[in-house]
Design brief:
Radius of gyration of chain B: 28 Å
Strand content of chain B: 5-15%
Radius of gyration of chain A: 21 Å
Pfam families (chain A): LUD_dom
Organism (chain A): Deinococcus grandis
InterPro entries (chain A): FTHF_cligase-like_sf, LUD_dom, NagB/RpiA_transferase-like
Distance between the termini of chain A: 48 Å
Oligomer: heterodimer
Helix content of chain A: 25-40%
Largest sheet of chain A: 6 strands, parallel
Strand order of the largest sheet of chain B: 1-10-7-4-2-3
Distance between the termini of chain B: 31 Å
CATH superfamily of one domain in chain B: NagB/RpiA/CoA transferase-like
Order of helices and strands of chain A: HHEHEEHEEEEEHEEEE
Protein name (chain A): Lactate utilization protein B/C
Keywords (chain B): 4Fe-4S, Electron transport, Iron, Iron-sulfur, Metal-binding, Repeat, Transport
């Protein structure tokens, strides 16, 4: 960061730190209590819970065996043809006849806006909350890819579904330490700003389709 | 614009509340919203049997950050810089908004997009930018409604909750170009906002956001939202500026999980809100390639310096306390005058501004001390205790007032039995001209406030002590069952005193009159 184009705030920093140190002088840190854990559920119960939560967000949910992925993706895409595919997503999972937009070289915002759908993988998912976490690895692509199209089809391996938020954070902690961004999705875009009436779909993908693969 | 920005109430709470409580539509809206969200919240909290332990951990985690605050902030600065971001320090609102304006000017932008942020309202950012010819577009639906109608937010979570769909329909039909005639259907109105903002998301060069949490260890910043407008602003522009109160810092990556459990359930009453974004400095090829983090004090170190009031800084702005507060439910957010309404605002605003502020000083009085806010607070801020503590502080600030003198007089009079009885005798005589029928409809002078919305019962001709004396000089045991004379209080027309149950336990509190 040479030739900093912005005024230095060193003086403010010094004063702020002085105020803080004066304010907390003598305060001691208390030991943290242990993190409370949920009673563990069976694998099958975790997947059922995940499905229940996803449906509760009014997102779509399909559970398939590995051999059925292509058919499930085709069904989830419905009539969508212009589909964004992150660089690292296995081509073998995608149905034929798509107008695939590979983000290499990077697509412009206008290109992304013309896409009808995006298909991605994920880093981890949480059954207690029905949350999918993207760490934007090669099978998920950069953040804009899963943001702009109206339909997001997300492939989740069965062994990626954990029960608690805590387990999910532990799983992606290394990604965060490596400087990667995270996006947590729980259902599609929604608002309740007008008379607290929930409206699905405002700015992000209005439709989320989760496919769990075993 | 003051150096403290949008914190400062323009008038004392009682005056502001008086203007708001008469708005029937507002009260109906608020009642609907708060009761709906209260019920939803109770359901999702019940799902987690260890909710209380999560609260305790949430409180302890925030406390740990506060007692190590300078180290955490220095580490945060270092981590953000290591990932290619800039970090700036701002002592007050003015310094923060000047920083944002300087960054915008350096990039020659005359329009920027914003994620809903109370901190940016706190520093009155939009107004300051407008004065410099930079238009800030709010992209959260409720904030857009507030902005288009030149209104002010009234709730932390749902800022336009005081507006109903017909008002929003009229507003959008007048303000959103090219939309034609919209119906009052919320989905259609949201769709209009989507179309209006889409082009701005895709083409605007700079965005401003607040910060829900920041991780010192890695420099990771988090914004929690629902609509996707946050993701748009945080991802698509070239330049991103995030403004955070210094109390938002956490120690390590793992700390975010307890708040991702506590915040959505307390705030929107969902298991998880639709979108949470986390980013660390600049990610090459992904998202804004220039990132600025502004660390804002604006009174927070005042709060930190008070060992008892310090817990207020644990607040994660979930708004659960607003939704359970009987005072908020009736008066609404605007009565608090500050960008921080409700119970949390009643303790945060006066502490941020300093207890000498004459208007903010009245906010700790905006409570019936029912304690519901403490029960729901996900980080266990003992709001009722802080309210009482601040009321004491406010009274000490005021020095010797007529009220304080009256209280001193009362203390003197009541500390000796004979003085008290004498005073009662005097009162029985003195009340004569005030009594109308069997009530005193209005008291004179400063006591008039008491009878503003209720009648006072006159002192009875004979008090309990006189009756008791008379009884013991009477004829014996039979009199024990004799009814007292013309009773002090008729059960059916006054508050019923607490009844002792078997085992000497008192029932719950007696029913109270509405205190507002």
């Amino acid at each position: 960061m040479t030739a900093e184009p912005f005024p230095s705030t060193a003086e403010a920093k010094l004063e702020l730190l002085t105020r803080i140190n004066r304010a907390i002088a003598g305060a001691e840190q208390q030991p943290l209590p242990p993190y409370p854990v949920s009673a563990p559920l069976s694998r099958e119960a975790v997947l059922h819970q995940f499905e229940d939560r996803i449906l509760d967000y009014k997102a779509a949910f399909t559970r398939v065996l590995a051999g059925e992925i292509v058919g499930a993706v085709a069904a989830a895409l419905g009539g969508a043809r212009r589909v964004i595919v992150p660089p690292g997503l296995a081509a073998a999972w995608l149905p034929a006849g798509l107008d695939m937009l590979r983000d290499d070289p990077p697509l412009s915002h206008a290109d992304l806006d013309r896409a009808e759908a995006v298909v991605t993988g994920c880093a981890v998912a949480v059954s207690e909350t029905g949350t999918i976490v993207l760490d934007h690895g090669p099978d998920q692509g950069r953040r804009a890819l899963s943001l702009i199209p109206d339909l997001h089809v997300c492939l989740v391996r069965g062994d990626q579904v954990v029960q608690t938020v805590r387990q999910a954070v532990d799983t992606v902690a290394a990604s965060v330490r490596a400087g990667r961004p995270l996006t947590w999705l729980s259902g599609g875009s929604a608002t309740s700003d007008i008379e607290l009436v929930r409206v699905e779909g405002v700015h992000g993908p209005r439709h989320l389709h989760v496919i769990v693969v075993e | 614009m003051s150096d403290h920005g949008g914190l400062h109430p323009a008038q004392p709470f009682p005056a502001a509340a008086r203007e708001q409580v008469v708005k029937a539509q507002l009260r109906a809206n608020l009642r609907k919203v708060t009761t709906t969200i209260r019920a939803k919240r109770a359901n999702v909290v019940e799902e987690l049997p260890h909710w209380e332990q999560l609260r305790t951990l949430g409180a302890a985690t925030k406390d740990a950050s506060l007692v190590n605050l300078s180290d955490r902030l220095l580490q945060l600065e270092q981590s953000v810089r290591a990932r290619g971001g800039y970090v700036h320090w701002a002592r007050d609102a003015k310094e923060a908004r000047d920083l944002v304006a300087r960054i915008a000017q350096a990039h020659g932008v005359d329009e920027l997009i914003k994620v809903k942020s109370i901190t940016s309202d706190e520093i009155e950012l939009n107004k300051a930018l407008e004065e410099r010819g930079i238009h800030a577009v709010e992209t959260d639906l409720a904030e857009l409604i507030v902005q288009l109608s030149n209104d002010r937010p009234s709730h932390i979570l749902v800022p336009a909750i005081h507006r109903n769909r017909a008002e929003i329909q009229a507003l959008f039909n007048a303000e959103l170009p090219g939309e034609g005639a919209l119906s009052d259907n919320p989905a259609e109105l949201a769709g209009a906002a989507r179309r209006y903002l889409r082009h701005k998301f895709l083409t605007t060069k700079m965005a401003v956001s607040g910060v829900n949490f920041a991780v010192a260890e890695t420099g990771t910043v988090c914004v929690v939202e629902s609509e996707g407008n946050g993701r748009m602003c945080l991802t698509l522009p070239e330049v991103l500026v995030s403004i955070m109160g210094i109390e938002k810092v956490l120690e390590k990556v793992e700390d975010i999980s307890v708040f991702m459990e506590l915040l959505p359930r307390s705030s929107t009453a969902e298991r998880m809100n639709p979108y949470n974004s986390f980013w660390t400095g600049v990610t090459p090829g992904d998202g804004p390639q220039e990132f600025h983090l502004i660390l804002l004090d604006n009174g927070r170190t005042n709060v930190l310096a008070d060992e008892f009031g310090r817990q207020t800084l644990r607040c994660i702005r979930c708004s659960a306390c607003l939704n359970v507060c009987p005072v908020y439910e009736r008066a609404g957010g605007h009565a608090y005058g500050s960008v921080y309404p409700g119970p949390i605002g009643a303790i945060l605003t006066p502490q941020l501004l300093g207890m000498h502020d004459k208007n903010a000083n009245t906010l700790p009085g905006a409570s019936s001390l029912c304690g519901a806010c403490y029960d729901v607070c996900p980080v266990k801020i003992n709001i009722p205790q802080v309210l009482i503590y601040l009321r004491t502080e406010a009274n000490l600030q005021k020095g010797l007032t007529a009220e304080a003198l009256a209280m001193k007089g009362l203390k003197f009079m009541m500390s000796e039995g004979w003085r008290f009885e004498g005073a009662l005798k005097l009162a029985r005589v003195g009340q004569g001209p005030l009594v109308r029928g069997d009530a005193i409809p209005s008291l004179p002078g400063m006591l008039g406030g008491w009878t503003q919305s209720r009648d006072l019962r006159p002192f009875p001709k004979e008090g309990f002590r006189d009756w008791w004396k008379g009884r013991s000089q009477g004829t014996g045991p039979a009199d024990v069952n004799a009814a007292p004379p013309e009773t002090v209080q008729k059960a059916e027309d006054g508050p019923i005193p607490p009844q002792k149950k078997e085992g000497g336990q008192f029932d719950a509190e007696p029913p109270r009159e509405d205190t507002l």
